[in-house]
Amino acid sequence: MSDSSALMKKLQNLKSFRIHTGNINSFAELKLKRFKNSAEELSACLDLQFRKLDHSIDIGPNNTVLLSECLQDIVYDRDDLKISLKVFLTDFDCTQITNAIDATLDQLKTDSIEQIIVAFPEIDGESEEHENAWIQNVISLWKNIETLIDVGKVVSAGVADLQFSQLEKLYDEAYVKPRVNHFNIEGCCVVPPELQTYAREHDIQLLTHNDPSPFPVKEVFTSVCEHRCDSQPCGFGLLWAARYTVWVQRRSIMASKGYILEFNAQK
Questions:
Q1: Terminal alpha carbon distance of the chain
Q2: Pairing of strands 253-265, 236-248
Q3: Whether the Cβ atoms of residue 118 and residue 98 lie closer than 8 Å to each other
Q4: Number of structural domains the chain divides into
């Protein structure tokens, strides 16, 4: 049995587990390649890591598998670093955000994250009623994010792919205002002018991204397991995915980048 198949067999006996890629910035094969989007990058990363899996790898605390011990070559002072975390939710469940943040803090050995961006689940329907229910769920979940800011785990927070009316409603309801809207311009060439104007007037950064929506983490993981582990993890359901980037402030150097994914067993 291969090392990857042995690991997968252990994971299949758990109710839930986490996969942490470690610092993928340390892999030249990934760093030098241009990917169509972040899902393609994650797929290439997992495929590479499962192919080179160390025979001694095991399941660590909180049922976390650290696929690589790779760290940045130079150690920086914490005050010189800015940690940004994007969390991809599968449900309007505040524990998904809390667990994603706690897992990142634990893996990076730090007490706080400078910025979190939340990608919410898609709207389940196209009617105005569906959209109103969706934005109320966003507002409710935002209150949990505000609590995390109050206790010092997070410094600032933003959202992903909110349209003008959605961002306006959240901004009006929030006492801790969103400071970033991570916007995907795939299919168009610019951010809508109305959204640009609103963001400028309310001091909200508009940053573009190439993350698919919804993020196909389960499909990526299943594909890698079938290819590298001779296993079909059909019983695994994705709870959340998170991508962190660690920047050296004022120098625009990315010291570290990685993904943390949490799955549960769906019997």
A1: 25
A2: antiparallel
A3: no
A4: 1
